[in-house]
Amino acid sequence: MNIRRTLHISLNVLFGHKLRTLLSALAVGTGVAAVVMMVGASKAAQNDTAKKIENLGTDLISVQASRIKNLGGRARHGTRFTTTTLNDIRSIKRKVSGVKRVGGMFDRRANANYKNIKTRTMLMGVEPEVFDIWRISAVSGRLYTQRDEEKIARVCVLGQTTKNNLFGDVDPVGEMIQVGPMQLKVIGVSSQRGLDYRGNDLDDVIYVPLQTAMKRFFNVTYIEAIIVQVYNKDSMDEVKEEITRVLRKNHRIKEGKEDDFTIQTQEQLLKSEMQTEEAFGLLVAVVAGLSMVTGGIGIFAVMLISLRERKREVGLRRAIGARHKDITVQFMLEALILSLIGGIIGIIVGLLGCCIITKLNNWETLIPLSTLAFAFIISVVTGIIFGFYPARLASKMEPAEALRAAV
Amino acid sequence: MIELIGIKKTYFTEGKETPVLFGIDFKIEEGEYVAIMAPSGTGKSTLLNILGTLDKPTEGKYLFKNRDLTELNDDQLSQLRNKSIGFVFQLFNLLNRVSVLDNVLLPLLYAHNYPKDAKERAINLLNMVGLSERIHFKPNALSGGQQQRVAIARALINEPDVLLADEPTGNLDSKSSEEILNIFDEIHRQGRTLVVVTHELDVAKRAQRVITMRDGKVFKEEKVK
Question: For residue B55, what is the nearest residue in chain A, using CA coordinates?
Fold first, then answer.
């Protein structure tokens, strides 16, 4: 059989039935579009998360005073401990080499009000060094200093969101605000940090000296986290090990017992976030795959229906010399053409959708070639799988009987 | 050219036996124009299907150019139909979505080699049946008689040994019927073997010989001219 001629006839048949062809191609197209769109968007989202985490700084190590476990693919704080103190910060500064900056942290949600305007925000006690670590500067007024820290001063620096919530366009420097039971003097407004990788607003915050938070607000002797910046990214692992050793000694943890703190690097954070997103990406792929099945069933139904109409055609083809094989090939070819047309429509629509989704989310638009290849391949496979049974049915028809079929 | 020896056909459906042909014997010589006359429901279609190798006899031998066709497999029979048998049906059986020219070329799709002069050959045949002006039309834009003429051109494209026509004028008015029968005469003059199955005496009388069937058997054979 001549494939080129067969193709020519198949195309004629398909384009003769424009509506039928379009509908079944659209069924596949929808599936392919879903695949391209969902996979593309989730890839873009992953990429975005990765970038945001990298923006936090790849030279940072965080020490959390709790055991962080991966539960359900997401990092969660387990038991919190009260053993990590200011003393640990001093130890790290003194004993661990390769450390550029260290800062302690203690934060809690708190209500703040200025006159009768109220807001609920994060009261974040951090040492002044943390401003340097996070590359925060003052856009108005000043940041607090080591002196303020030592004096346990009643001063605060407002994040931009909190500043806007309480003061609007007014410059807050020099004003007093009420946070919980305490009056604090606003000495500055911090530069913008944006959103973290989970979408939390990092500027919805009131910074106070760490000891102010510990002693004046919460009356605790322990801290929640220590943020460490290293000189050299490559020495990350050694620094991590040394910190572990120092803290275990300070906390008097016996050998064989579990740490009562968790050390995380940005890389680890990135990895665990990516795992979550990848799991989600897999789910997306499965859902998209299911929509391909729908497309396949579309082809299947159209082929079966057209088979009933085309019984006489099959009979005729058999009469003029088509073998079983030729009929199978012809119907498979038609199913394949349908799914290819669908695949192309789907890829175009999917790409458009993907662009729109990523633009709306302000993500970088990524169009991975592998996704396109994947979508293309599954549309072909769909055509083959769902075209096979109708094609077999067609080839198995008795020619004499098929010729007698009603029009 | 064609020899049927004791051809019997019985259909088995749901355990019930329905005998249709009760032993048919006849010969058709090369270049002969034969009509098979039979009222409907007498196994006429069955006989035609067997002659066209679209169906197999339950019993008996079918010799086609001295080859016993009952021993061929399905693919071989398909090849034989493609090369040696041209079909003309009562309902034309054209593909409505493709052009007249492509319809005529269709059998070549299943030929071993696609001849280089295929298009030329098709146009010649369409010329012979008087449709050379219509090669790019779709069949449903043509009259019944014209469609049947396309079907005849299609049946001849592979230069078959025999042309099998099943009630070729059954769906046509008398003027179109006459045109078709004239074309058959012409094909016969060119030396091709023709077998026309019909229940119309006017059609049968155009052949050289008429084989009349009744109740699944050959009732009589007579020369017309």
Answer: A400
